[in-house]
## 1
Amino acid sequence: MYLQFETKDEFIRWIQENLLSPHEVSEYLGVTPQAVNQSVKNGKLVPIKQEPRFSLFLKEDVENRKEELQTLRTKYRPWESDKK
């Protein structure tokens, strides 16, 4: 995939729409920050940029992880899906 932006504003808009902080990932997935860290350690979620105190995640990767988690929850916690 090749991205090209005409203006700096387009680039900033793309970043705001497609990159997530660890806190945003935690909220989006409905898990604790520790669970996000564990997913990174297990290789289930790979940050696109990782610094000692901060990481950035691609929204598409987080959406894929959410689908995996929903499948696992349905399989291993069927009583939770009955409530919805």
## 2
Amino acid sequence: MDDSVDRHLARWKGYAPFDERTEGIVTRMQFLVRQLHQAKDRALVEVGLQQFEFETLHWLVAHGGRATPSQLAGELKISPAGITGRLDTLEKAGLLRRTRGERDRRRVDVEISDLGRELWTGAQRIRGEVEDGMVGALGVEERDALNALLKRMLLAVEE
């Protein structure tokens, strides 16, 4: 059975100077990543989060639910002014709260709220279902083999 990449390769056969095997692998990876992005975007819409909200909550959850604005700005690679605006929006939506440090009142901590954690968890659940559905086409041994092969490729380009 042909997939969309087989049809893509057939259209370009004889016209483009590429190795069909390499083009097939790379194009399939691109198409799968596109499908993941679209599904993950739908998950955010379903729970009512925007991408920037999810990213901020995701980082907070990954770091124990609490951080300083400067830690968030650094991790999310946005300016201090940008993080202030983002935190204002998230705080008004009830997704996080800012509190003064107990020892140093000049310090501000950002903490995910119960609502923020609930929405983040809902988005993660939906995203996980999409990912499971995608890799579910493979058996356990095939998943292990694919994971090992992708790791080897990634290590090669990360060096």
## 3
Amino acid sequence: MRLSLLNKSEKENRNDFQTMERIFNAATARNQAVIVTARNRDGKSVAAVIIVWGAVNAYFWQSARDLSCGVGGVNAMLLWKSIELADRMGLTFDFDGYGSVSSAKFLAGFGLSPLVRTEVSRQIVPYKLFKLANGMMLKRAKAGAELRA
């Protein structure tokens, strides 16, 4: 099965697929990753999520969905199945955060207690400049690697 993680054009996409593949392969080699897939009635894969885990937590790491899929609730079903999987393994399930009130309400509907995490909401100018410079260096390194390939 291959679902695209490209919700934007390749030019706009910021996923580092080579690194993601290395992480997934390393986790799979340690039996610490699984792909949970949703299929339509015809057996076609319409959505998937990659779950990775360690000794204590399971993480909702990457997800993808066929944008032409008209099945409502497919993401919620995959999320629920992921929670069940973590529970069967005796692990805490980590949704990997959420960025909006509507997402928080959606996740609260699963009946689990949220855990508060510290979040940086403001940054001083030197840190912003560091992030900008670091991003530029990573972009340059990626472009150089693509030229060598």
## 4
Amino acid sequence: MSLKDTVVADDAVVLTEAEAGAAADRAFGVRCAAEDVATAVAEGADAAELAELCDRLVTLAKDAERLR
């Protein structure tokens, strides 16, 4: 696809609707996982539970940072 003679910047990244939706879904997953960690801390969760929740959060964050 050529962007010549358009108002879209040459260095712009163009996503399909599906790709944008998938990125938003991954970001939502990260937010939910972060909220789970915050809730667990507030409720006095033990170290093992917090470690598990943090591992999940890191996994989701790594997935969310890449574009497909």
